[in-house]
Amino acid sequence: MSEHILEVRDLEVSFTAHGQTVTPVDGVSLSVTRGEALGIAGESGSGKSLTLKSIIGLLPPNATVVGDLRYALDDEEPIPYAPADVHGHGISIIFQEPMTALNPTMRVGDLIAEGPRIHHGLDKKAARVKAVDLMRQVGIPTPERRARMWPHQLSGGLRQRVMIAAALSTEPSLLLCDEPTTALDVSIQDQILGLLQELRGSLGMSVVFVSHDLAVLGELCDRLAIMYGGRIVETGPVDEVFADPQHPYTEALMTSVPSFDATAEQLRGIDGRPPDPRAFPPGCRFAPRCQYARDECRSAVHELRDVSAGRTTACIYPELIQGVKR
User: Fold this and answer.
1) CATH classification of the domain holding 296
2) In the 8-state DSSP scheme, what is residue 274?
3) Is residue 107 part of a domain?
4) DSSP string, 284-304
5) Fewer CB under 10 Å: which end of the chain, C or N?
């Protein structure tokens, strides 16, 4: 039995419109082990959400997906799949904004029951019972009453719990989370994160969690992948990546996050702007913003390479990185 539940190799996502082709996800490779929580971090526009949506097949008609996608059914070895094959059959997704993800014309109980009916063949009565049980499992008070409500009648936190229940209704082995706490206030965000941690442990799921919030990823995830300009630039255990970044972009992200004991001099933003996917710069895509960049950085795209056990980086000069000094 393979230790990996998901393997993605050389993933490219392209869009063609008005005679122009853009490739915002360009050569992403990642893997998720059984029971692991993998975090994907990066600025907006780095390709995080597109990567998740391409894995599960939720892209518009003008999108083209190229790459080797493999998923492990039950306890078997990962096998190649087309994204449509796994949507609702082992892989589920939670979106950022439940109000735009939930069907406003369906009562929330019927919405949750739809997955078990379609994918597991339950009749309407059994599916409704399962929906109420799932609502109770994700911490929705008086689930029998709220199952008859419409999405707009629930608070933002309850809507997010409904979306989690809907994602769990197909009994996934892998849960994809696309910034599911960004639209929530801090107290509700903490509740949702605690719920996801509890469900991951009790159900034995693997999780891929996309966020630009490093604190959230540090709390929830075991391993971290840093994404920039449509590519993964660094991977490693969360604590090690935080303590000893091996790519200048990772270092820049860390030093731009405020902490209680950081001085004004220690906190700084990242100069410049993320690259335009219509015209990625040659060589390392972070080079135009990198304080360590040399001629070799601008001449060729550098692939991920091992720097230590469980650590990879796409930087060819990681020894220059000063790290996060706090």
Assistant:
1) 3.40.50.300
2) P
3) no
4) -TTGGG-TT--HHHHHSPPPP
5) N
Compute the distance between CA of residue 27 and CA of residue 23 in angstroms, rounded to an integer. Answer: 10
Inter-CA distances, 90 with 56, 99, 134, Å? 10, 24, 17
Convert the pLDDT of each residue in 282-294 to its tens digit: 999 999 999 999 9
**CB count in 10 Å sphere of residue 24:** 21
Count how many domains the chain has.
1
Whether 87 contacts 77, CB under 8 Å: no
- Would 175 be classed as within a structural domain? no
Predicted pLDDT at 326: 40
Give the DSSP letter string of 134-176.
HHHHTT-SSHHHHTTS-GGGS-HHHHHHHHHHHHHTT--SEEE
pLDDT attached to residue 324: 58
Nearest to 298 by CA among 316, 313, 318: 316
Sign of CA dihedral 106, 107, 112, 118: negative
Sequence length of the chain is 326
Tokens in use for 112? 């949750």
For residue 90, the model assigns a pLDDT of 86
Is 224 inside a domain boundary?
yes
φ, ψ of residue 210 to 5 degrees: the values are -95, 130
Q: How far apart are CA 178 and CA 212, in angstroms?
A: 10
Whether residue 48 contacts residue 102, with contact meaning beta carbons closer than 8 Å, is answered with no
Quote the tokens at residue 277.
Answer: 């996917």
Residue 126 forms part of a structural domain: no
Domain that holds residue 324: 1-36+46-90+209-326
